[in-house]
Specification:
Length: about 260
C-alpha cells in the first residue's frame, strides 16, 4: 500500500514546521513514485521555491503543481496569490496534482487534472478579511479557490483511487481520452465543460439527446449570450462523438465510451 515515507534526505525533521514537512514529503513521494502523464517520463522537483509549479518532467519539461492534505477529496482547493497564479497560468500553464492521505499516511487518492482545466467557471476569489493569519502581510494577498467539485470527473485522472493503484494503461487511456481539449479554443472549452457536467449529472452510461435538452435552462443561465441553446448542445455532442468521448448509437441516443 502506498504511504508517505519519512525516509527523506533532510537533516532534522524536528526543526521543520509540520506544514513544510508535509509539503517536502509529498513532493518527494510524488517525484519518486509518479510518472509524467504527457510523455511517461520521470518527474523532478524544482530546486528553487516558486509561487507555483512544484515538479516538472525530466523530458518534456511540463510543469506540475501539487496540492495535498489529509482526509477526503476537497470540494474546493484553497490557494493564495490570485494575481500571481493568473499570471503564471497565462505565461506558463501547469497541470495540477492532487494527493490525499489518511491518518496513517497511506495515500488514499492521487490524481492529475490537466492544465486546460483552468477556466473562469472554476475560479473563485475569497474574502481575504476572513483569512486568519498572524502575519498581517498575508492578508494583502488576493486568495482564491479552485471549485474542485465543479470540474468534470473525466478531467480528473486517477493514479490511485480509494487506495487502489490504477495500471499505467488505465491512466494513459483516461488521459488521452480528453487530451483533445488542449487544442480547443477557450469559448468552445467552456461549452464542452458545461455539457460534460450535464452528462455526468445524468449518472448513466447511455442517455438521450432529450436528457441533455432538459438542462437547457441551466445552460442558458451560464451562457445568456447564446440564443439557441439546443443547437449548441447538439454541436458539443457531435464534437464529443468525433473525439471518441461518446458513441452515437442511433438517432438521439448516445453512450459514454
Amino acid at each position: 500500500m502506498p504511504y508517505l515515507s519519512q525516509n527523506h534526505p533532510i537533516a532534522d525533521w524536528k526543526k521543520v514546521w509540520w506544514t513544510q514537512a508535509i509539503k517536502m514529503l509529498t513532493e518527494y513521494w510524488t517525484a519518486n513514485n509518479i510518472f509524467c502523464p504527457v510523455c511517461w517520463s520521470a518527474l523532478l522537483q524544482h530546486e528553487i521555491d516558486k509561487p507555483v509549479n512544484d515538479l516538472f518532467c525530466r523530458d518534456c519539461k511540463e510543469d506540475f503543481e501539487l496540492k495535498s492534505s489529509k482526509g477526503k477529496l476537497w470540494k474546493t482547493i484553497p490557494w493564495w496569490a490570485y494575481d500571481v497564479m493568473i499570471r503564471e497560468m497565462i505565461d506558463n500553464p501547469m497541470h495540477l496534482f492532487v494527493l490525499k492521505y489518511a491518518e496513517d499516511y497511506t495515500i488514499t487518492n492521487f490524481l492529475v487534472v490537466p492544465k486546460y482545466f483552468f477556466i473562469p467557471e472554476i475560479i473563485q476569489k475569497r474574502n481575504t478579511s476572513k483569512v486568519k493569519q498572524k502575519n498581517w502581510s498575508i492578508r494583502l494577498w488576493t486568495w482564491w479557490n479552485i471549485l474542485f467539485d465543479k470540474i468534470p470527473n473525466s478531467w480528473k485522472i486517477h493514479y490511485i483511487q480509494d487506495w487502489r493503484y490504477k495500471t499505467r494503461t488505465e491512466i494513459l487511456n483516461e488521459w488521452n481520452k480528453i487530451r483533445f481539449l488542449e487544442k480547443e479554443k477557450q469559448e468552445s472549452k467552456w461549452w464542452i465543460f458545461d455539457v460534460m457536467k450535464c452528462i455526468e449529472r445524468l449518472d448513466k452510461k447511455e442517455f438521450l439527446l432529450q436528457d441533455i435538452y432538459d438542462f437547457e435552462n441551466d445552460l442558458n443561465l451560464l451562457h445568456p449570450e447564446n440564443n439557441n441553446i439546443k443547437a449548441k448542445i447538439r454541436q458539443q455532442l457531435q464534437l464529443l462523438r468525433d473525439k471518441n468521448y461518446l458513441e452515437f448509437l442511433e438517432r438521439g441516443k448516445y453512450r459514454i465510451l
